[in-house]
Amino acid sequence: MKIFKKLFEGVDISTSSEKDRILLVETNDQDAFLRSAVLSDANYEISRAKNCLEAFKTLTSGINFQAVVTAFLLPDGTAIELLKRVQEQIPETVSIVVADEIDESLILEAMQAGASYCIPTF
Length: 122
Hints:
Elements: H1 2-8, E1 21-25, H2 29-41, E2 45-49, H3 52-59, E3 67-71, E4 73-74, E5 77-78, H4 79-89, E6 94-99, H5 104-113, E7 117-120
Parallel strand pairs: 1-2, 1-3, 3-6, 6-7
Antiparallel strand pairs: 4-5
């Protein structure tokens, strides 16, 4: 858990004094639990989606999310596909991609799709 906290040091999504909302898009229950715990400890309100479709429905439901933290591989697509839709519809949302292996091509593709950050998982 300390490793994941360290990954989020310096990642600022705050837009106001209110508690910020993050949508966590993660299929793995253990990873979702760990990331939710870390982000909740940092005083973020967390909602979870398990795939691209669920994530996009949640993001466009009228709830204001300041950020999306998404795994790269999802059952119905990738973070790239999700971020392209998010960028088109709600471009002010900060997007963070978490991937097992991050190389320059993944970072470039994610940034072009609208990612604000790409961080490795542990």
